[in-house]
Queue: 3 jobs
Job 1
Amino acid sequence: MAERSFKTEVQQLRLGEGAEFRGEGILAVTKALLQSGVAYVGGYQGAPISHLMDVLADAQEIMDDLGVHFESSASEAAAAAMLAASVNYPLRGAVAWKSTVGTNVASDALANLASGGVIGGALVIVGEDYGEGSSIMQERTHAFAMKSQMWLLDPRPNLPSIVQAVEHGFALSEASSTPVMLEMRVRACHVYGRFTARDNRKPAFGVRDAMMAPRRDTSRIVLPPASFQHEHEKVRDRWPAAVAYIRDHGLNEIFADGSKDVGIILQGGMYNQVIRALQRAGLSDAFGKVSIPLYVMNVTYPLVDDELVAFCVTKRAVLMVEEGQPEFLEQALHTILRRADVQTRVHGKDMLPMAGEYTAAVMHAGISAFLQRHLPAHAPAIPVATPAAAAPMPEIHGRPPSFCTGCPERPIFTALKLVERELGAHHISADIGCHLFSILPPFNLGNTTMGYGLGWAGAAALNDKTSQRRTISFMGDGGFWHNGLTSGVGNAVFNKSDNVLVVVDNGYSAATGGQDILSSGAANANRSTGNKIERAVRGVGVNWVRTIEHTYSVGKMAAVLREALTTKTLGPKVIVASSECQLNRQRRVKPLIRDAIRQGRRVVRERFGVDPDSCTGDHSCIRLSGCPSLSIAPNPDKLRRDPVAAVDNSCVGCGVCGEVSHAAILCPSFYRAEIISNPTGWDRLRHRLSQAVIHFLQRRMAHA
Amino acid sequence: MPEGLRAPTDAPADASVQERAIGIAILAMGGEGGGVLADWLVAMAEAHGYHAQSTSVPGVAQRTGATIYYVEIFPHAAAAGREPVLAMMPIPGEVDVVIASELMEAARAVQRGLVTPDLTTLIASSHRVYSMTERTAMGDGRLDSQGLLTLCRQAARRLVIADMRQLAEAHASVLSASLFGGLAGAGVLPFSRAQFEQAITQGGVGVKPSLAAFAAGFDAAQTLPAQSPDPITPEAHDIIAEGIRRLTDYQDAAYAEAYRTRLAPLHGTGDLLTETARYLALWMSFEDPIRVADLKIRATRFQRVEAEVKLAPGQILRIREFMHPRLQEIAETLPGFLGRALLSSAVLRGIAGHLTRKGRIIETTSITGFLTLWCVASLRRWRPTTLRYAAEHAAIDQWMLRILALAPTNPSLALEVAHLQRLVKGYSDTHVRGRRNFDTLMAHLPTLEARDDGPQTLVRLRDAALADDTGLTLTVALAKEGLA
């Protein structure tokens, strides 16, 4: 079960004609898929599209009613390959993932798909993780669309536009035999808004129909000579067909043409920010009624040359608002105008920055520069907000994400830190997942991360048999099943690696929102879970495997790491460090505990604490843990100044604090409090007896 | 006009002519309910005649990082059927309200330019959630809260600040509820208190405690406290009095008297007396196992833990201590002859070493556990005969001698020498490391004494010793000062 339940949102997927849908952008996409008669859906979770996958997983019943097949794909490559169903059959299919990382993984399948083309509409929904809050390298999906000839939609970020883009996306795909990508920026995925729903459509031709009546067409398979034909088909047939569809259906929008002899061309996704900047300059009202012409590219690939030429030919200058680099659109615009011999001045990255998110301030500055240059009389520079002329800015610290309270991954890195104190520093190859937070303080462990599941492959070159020191690689259970079993473990076995892999097995694809995977412990009605990582690892030929079932035992964790790093046994060594993700565990057990207490059953809650009078304020414990519930507090002691360590009531009693103070021989200030609700008669008797003795001695001490 | 309704800006209050969206940015950390707050705002706005849009960039920030939610609302009356174009992110200069869940997050909003003095009402909780940098410092790495507060006060059109976390906890609720109350109490949005409360009620989760925390936040916003007075710097006699109290408690009245006597030559030296009194008291009450056991078994300590874990009537509390005394510490806590015997006999060392290889967990709330610690605490009267006592007092003597010697000739260096005691803290390895750094710096005193910038150099070296726990920074700093 995923981190967030969408049982209530799912009901909105049933809305019929005329009803109002309210919710996030990415949920609107889900509803639009059903309205478009989609036959199958797949994808791989990851912000910002995790919610799409989670909603669909929670909507199994609705999908079954409509005869829609839904898969939680093993990877983006698997999801992209699913679209092969639209090559031979008139099946509408959609897949979704985080981009560009997911698109990188999916590229092999996408390139094959785009080469042969499709007859059923194929839609790839990419969550463009770019700008603030992004967790990945800053690249553009645009390049993938260009290289494989897939069309790229970038609708205005409001729900009606997004829903329309989905519906047109399928039709465009079918009209041009080409897969279509729908680019959803992070904020558009999470924007709350409304649209008027239409009835869901059961696919006229379903997955079952295809299985019952198989069809094939050799000319659609990527193999010579067909593959050479595909390239010609792309430019001769599919591209013009797409341009015709886009033009005929008015997918790109023009506002207020002819009102001025300068204009702005923008990606659909930039629309709201552009309008708000123009509003500040007095060139728009609050409803987007502009007095400067706009050409809004809701389709950013392919471009419609005639539309652009017609828009520009009447203007002295245009500004191309294009987020990200390189400036594909601006370059294309130059080419289009040059070919048509149109002399309109094109601005873009000369006034707006080449790299980085187009925040409100950046957009204001760029548009302001353009207006000052070309419309100085009509539009004064956009006034920039002036912060108070205050004293110099005090120091403010960043607050990067880190391991949650009670996270089972933390003690793994605590143990590694302790082992490194004995054995020295090692090369550590990191992966993608929550465990990558190890690279940040307080652990500062990890050299590189090369992609999801590629932790061990990332250390493959460092495999010199004469080295006295082994490398350590990390991989989460999510990355392990995504591809790490083959690219990491299989690779290490085949190439006779002597190094160490730690698989962080927390029972979920945790970083993406707690989705189930093959080795998840929970029973899942629609998926096969409980497939052990250790069995898979042994299956591909690793003989040295240790599974730690309780990562919180820092001492045991350190011992197994020490053994793996020093054992004389040759060959790859794999440690499966297995404890349930605390975030998901708390979500699972909290209601159970509440019920148990209410029903009068004995429940013991554990949490840790620090005695402020014996804490000397060195904070070694925090440097070995970093748990959010282990913080500092002003020293209650009048003589001391350094703050003391302090545990707050959010502590879940995972035990790491105690383990750390034992394993690292830290200090005696830590205690574990066990709070017994609904104590039994024996508990109460024992309590009364010890209290009697303790009180007697405490009274004596007080008088001593 | 409903109660609490005020125009959001200097613009006319009549909604029908207002042509601008109201922007509300929420800065919070993962798990603090920023999303819930945004949902309440949207629900309230939609229920009372407004278009509403919210966006966020949660991503990995959900895992304890800082994140931002942005809400814009626009009156239907002014829209007259048209769809307003609302912003996807806060626009500096157009943010009417910033809600910050914590003081440094409030300052971050200012740093990001979201708070402008002509427009923005800043509603913030005054509590601190310390950053990793602040928490992992070996000494005191906390930011200056006063500086953050001043920044917020200067940057905002109006600052509404209270400890919203405490208000929430007092009503067993969450921060988002008290902040929502603060927003209502600030009266900047065109909604009545009842309309705010309705949003919480209709949200349907933890309604009763949420409403109580909301009310507390509301009242706090309406009755803003006076600025807190500057902390009073304690005088020497306060510190000495505290030192005497501490050492009487630690050992006995005679021990405290010895402390007072040692300080006598420094009377009239101002800061030097205060700081030496502070650190001498701390050093003389060094944390040996006797002291730790003594502190652990006190009735007051049991009461403190009960309060901290919020023990409810009918519940039973058990306290388990995590102790890991090492052979060295045990030997040092025994009377001198026993300790020396233990350390010098290979057989005894072997046995004791085996027994102390693992940490022990002792339940202080059990009879056996309590008695164990009680016995250790009872060794107090023999403390002056222990090896540890002898070693610590030898070092204290050396340190005091240097301070007294420097006091007349180089008082500022003497003061920094007094401060050096801050390096010696913790237990086991931490204590050994601190003591090693202390000894290193003490050994360089003669050189420093000859230098004009001796005191400043010593401060730099002390900071270097507290910069990391590998000693790397100190080594580099010593080399830089030509003292390696």
Job 2
Amino acid sequence: MLAFISRRMAAAVAMLLVIGTIIFSLLIIVPGDPAELLLSTGGGSASAEAIANLRVNMGLDKPVLTQYVTFLYNTARLDFGTSIVDNGSISSVIALRLPRTLEIIIAGTIFALLLAIPAGTAAGLRAGGKFDIAASAINALLTSIPGFVLGTLFIFFFAQVLGWLPAGGYVAFAANPMQHLQMLVLPALTVGLHLATIVFRMTRASVLEMRGHDWVRTAVAKGLRRKRVVRRHILYNALGPIITVVGLQLGILLGSTVLVEFIYNWPGLSGLLVSAVEQRDYPTVRAVILTVAAIFIGINLVIDILSSLLDPRIRLQ
Amino acid sequence: MMSVRNFPKRMILPSLFLAALIIIPFAAPLITADDPVKIAVRYRLAAPDLEHWLGRDEFGRDRLARVLYGGQVSLTVAFVATTIACIIGTLFGLVGAYFRGPSEFVTSRLSDIVLCFPPILLALLVVTLFGPGSVTLVAVLSVLYFPTFARITFSEALRVTSLDFVEASRALGTPSYRIVLGTVLPNIAGPLSVQYSLTAAAAITIESGLSFLGLGVVPPAPSWGQMIRGARQFMNQDPLGIMIPCAALVLTIYAINFFCDRLRDTLDPKGTSGSSMDEVSKPKSRANAPTIKDPDVVAVINNLRLETAHFGTPAVIEDVSLTLRANQCTALVGESGSGKSLSSLALMGLLPGAIRQVGGTLQLRRKSDEVVDLGFLDARRLEDIRGNDIAMIFQEPMTSLNPIHKISDQMIEAITAHRPMSKSDARAHAIALLKRVGMNDAERRIDSYPDQMSGGMRQRVMIGMALSCEPRLLIADEPTTALDVTIQAEIIELLQTLRQDQGNGLSLLFISHNLGVVADIADRVAVMYSGLIVEEGPAAQILRDPHHPYTRALIESMPSSHEELNSARGDRLPAISGTPPLPSARPSGCTFRDRCPIALPACAHIRPALYPSADGERAVRCLRAPEAPAGVMNHQTEAA
């Protein structure tokens, strides 16, 4: 087990290294002077002095290898450098905003799992039945609604028409817990519903596959209660494939969070990212994307370990 | 290649729907004469009228024109990018599959890496460097999605190139490029087209998302994402403004997904049929109160009739009656498809959802001496009986145990399902059972997983588990078929020993197509052919002197030496040609007459009954058997 975990962790670190290298080399392979490129706005270019300053600031005047090693070393220390725009420390901004993004993702994931796993199980057990047909049709429709469209429609209905919930904004939990939670509902729902469509589809397919296995028949032949057969011999077996797929889909989830935060004015990583892209603040963009990729890899590492706990065959390989 | 006539029916609706949604935006000049970018501030947010069907937006631009021309932009970006990704990815995949080695590594790893970047974030990264715009979008989307195409092409190409006919044409000296173009590409076209539509939908989502953030298509060029962004500030006064582009976007993505789902179903029709966890439907009317008078009898199957759930199809089991006694092993023999497994599953209440019992009774004497009819019990009472009064061993020990639970857990739950017992007591009982079925080192091995055991060991576990609640009836459905020859003999010996040891007079129903094994273990034999019992009686008599031509054929098909006989796995009969008829294709009269070497013209008219012998010991369903009443043939022939 320990060997398995350390092998997976080594793979995760290697993956991070590759991603860091790709992100680093993007700036190198860009045709022309990156400093000039980043400071250009529309047709006009910045003053020579500003370009020179930026070059020194970002270390672009040093040899590529030195830049690369420095970049890796600093990234490993979680030092992402300073923003081109306001010279502030990127690391501290991320430290401030990351928890808010994670909050939406965690709340959305919990909502998605609570909704989609029971629904997917019910649909899979009675595939072709009334519930399955209805749920699958709703799911197909929801799958086709991009996150930002869903968010916009939610604001329209729940905030504008019905007036039940605030249209957006953020208050620290410590300042006003009730209001904080109210403001969390719509973003979490938007992110969660999107994930729920994926989880539903996967749970349904997985349950449908598992229920046909011989061991399910054995379990029924043993005289186990139907509930226990479903829980222990269908759902428990289906869980591994479900969480693996969910892990892989988290990339899309993390991406849709950017738009959802933007729609609801939730000051997480995405606000930072969008304004950094608008201002072509490359170091900040780079830092945010590295952080998100690291979260993605981290979550998938946890999922790998979880599914190996669920299924001995993965451990024994 | 595909003619109109064999275009799959289920694809017509999604194809038309999708085609309409793609064509309409490009037919914009035919639909409206308005310019999508012409500003008329005086008419901002004007309501729909006859000239401007969908009203005007926040700059007074015609909304219909904007939504149509915006569709052109979104669709073009998405489809151009997807096409580029598809071409590059397919080439990468083919090269990887052809050369293997390093290019294989690149192909399979590349998609892992790209998966780590949420697509929209990678797009943002590139937009930071190159600035927003349609060209940037196309480039980003192609880079994002080509590794997925490469991976699919790679794995499919590997699968296809290892197929027999491709190996054969390679051996014949067909050049590689011809193999790739002629066989590999057509074979991977299906999975690729599914991926193509999925990617197109994802690309539209990302394009509109980026435009919504103001980082995609550059204004004033219209795009659906931008229209939503613009209308958002006015959604209070003008809800139509967000509804129209939202609807256009959702409809288009839905059309693509719909098309893609149907395409996947058409290419890989697995369907939702098959076994279901639904309750098995019961016969409507209740039979007489069940009675088994003879105290020695454990179960009686009487005139069992099973049909498929489809209305109007013939019975899969026409008429099966069987008496199972304590301390007796009854063998149910026949080719696959004869209905022997279905009869036993009916006893367990484990019939597949598509099959229901329409007639007959399945009576069982429980351990408490209560007699019940299994066909009329509710689900809860059946659960009490399964594993407790009747237990079953299945054919495939490799798949009959749940691979992710320890043997101990699976045995303990079988015990505690019927006996109020602490977990540690149940564990001790389970260990004792494993020892009884001949497992060495049971204390340690009980904590292993099924995958750590051989097939023979797993079948021992299954047997131990089946005996855990001391059932009165044990059904063994081809328990040795999947095992090696030496293991087969061991398992048969074990079943023999256990049967003699079991104190309460275990009745064993042994299902097999292998008469050699049957000769070793059975007291009585019932031979089944296409849903009917054709011969029944004491094992020794029947095997020595079969009266039905089918039984004779089965015996003649046995390999001569005992070793070979045990290894016979095939379900086919070399002694007689043909296979059992499907329920829908059974001949008139005797169902065996098509394959029967001694059939008479009369056999086509008369459906023989099961004629008992004079001493009542055996019975046979054949007009030419000694048991058949004299004159039955003449009498019937005259009548006909």
Job 3
Amino acid sequence: MTLAALTKPWAATSYGFLDASAKRELRRKMLKAIAVPGCQMPYASREVPMARGWGTGGLQVTLTLVNPQSTIKVIDQGADDGVNAASIRRFISRVSGAAETWDTLDASIVQSRHRVPEETMREDQILVLQVPNPEPLRGVEPNMSIARQMHADADYGRLWLTLYEQLVRKGRIMQGAAYPSLVNGRHVMTPSPIPRWDVPKLNMARHLTFLSAGREKRLHAVPPFTRVEPLVFSDRPYRVEDHADLVCRRSGIAGYFMNEIPQDSGGSVFEVSDSNLGIKAIRRAEGEAVEIGATWYENGEYSA
Amino acid sequence: MAYVATRGGEKAIEQAERLFRQDLGTIDAARVEAIRQSMPYLVDRVMGEASLYDEDMAALALAQTGGELSEAVLVLRAWRTTQPRLAVAAPLLQEDLLTVRRISAAFKDIPGGQILGPTLDYSHRVLATDVLEGKPYNPPSVDPAATAAPMRQPSLADWQRQQGLVAPANDSTVAPDDIPDLTREPLLFPASRAHRLQSLARAETGGVLALGYAAMRGYGNAHPTVNELRLAEAEVMVRHPSGTEFSAGRVRVCQAEVTSKEKGGFLELGFAASFGWNEVKVIAAATLDLNSAEAPVGSPVHEEFYLSHTESVEASGFCIHFKLPHYVTFQSVLDAMRDAKAKAAAAKANQDVAVERQTEPAE
């Protein structure tokens, strides 16, 4: 037995970029996060070759999950070819050998910034959301030590109060994306800044969702079949964005979350935000045999 | 495929990166060496913020980022974090440092003497425009002292301890491998002393200066007096698995101790140290350390505030991330705003609606 036989050939970085000690720590924290749904787990959050705030939290989780058999989809604001999504997908594929895809149905891991795909995700898929601020209490308590104590006490009164104040002042809850939601009846989480449209997709979902904030060094999870309930008053039901009746000007499909494109002439047109769903619809309309999966929303109504 | 053809982001980002790199031109060993030789204080700053002591790599990082400091620190950190932690070096003691500069503002003279060493402190800051006129600047040579100052200098705080001015130091009982390591663990609050000093050691110089300056100007309660400022080289002593202790090399280090007033019968000390020679950073950092104990939560001199906001990689990354598209979240805000506006307009037009809106939530 020689020393050389016991070692591996030198490589500039480990498989999947992160070294074993970083992955071990992440796996422990990811398992903890699954065990206590919605509870933020601090992790070391190593530097990765991308700037903080550009998906480094999601990237670390994905790099820990990925293997050569994985198929990776990365979206930014719903689009696969957004500049940063393209950059992240290329990096993951380069360091892991995983296949790349734009199709939600083909992906084993979907890393996303600010959207949940419109096609219903399955048990064998994992959604990794990039999170800028994991702390739903930040707006009412910027000090994170105090906020942690508030989570421990399930002390969410001030969060309810801000929602109530919005109702009083504006006649409706003004929270846009990142709508605070109670997970498994215990921890309030901020579901990254996904639009309100996407929050119901996490409730009792078949897939596992990780939400990871690299800069803030926290991750949390929504395991499959876990309750995710937006904070609402019993007489003021939760309202998603009024996109149910909007029609995509390119693909012609309707009833999904849309991007608004302002027009020179005044007014706006709309394009479906889940860009690959739009592409598939166009290809199908052009006669290609393209499979479009079941979607969480049907005719603009949440139906799962 | 009309949908795809109108976008083409992947090609654009590749070309944008090429444009940046093309402007910088060929990066070769000579350029890296020139940066290392001519910009030692810049290299020191980058090594400190990257928490990686390697002059060649720091110079390379500067070369390949064109001197964009936050990018240079990020590439070094991203490389550093993939490297194994082989050993924990022996603690540095002040009296063992090979000291080149050591001053105290607290006393006119101190045991061991004030040693100015290399500094611009007393220079006139005049731009050497002659150089641009074709006359190179050749620095006058230094006249050696009659007797060289000793390489090793005692710690002023030790003398103060003997005089009963500073609280006795407790020997650490923590095993080297158990010292908390900020590069492998999250920073939690209240932070351990090790984490606080590590975080300050690799904090962004400008950020530490801004918040340290805020503390000095009056947003802190302790006005610093520089008890001891030291620039030195240190032997990195590690133990080989066979038991032999040896120096793995020398690193430049700097440290500052600042003091303010009496507390519990002793002078309070604030401390900071960093890789490289970066005086303004360690003085500002030591001032923040000094002010931490009594800082109100949420003030700029509170530990959670200044450590969170002087982290170079996080602060710069978050700042530049606002260049990313945010149209989904923005759309979500627009939706709520339009609906609220429509509601308000309808309420004005229709008294019934207004009455309902006023009474319901208040009940």
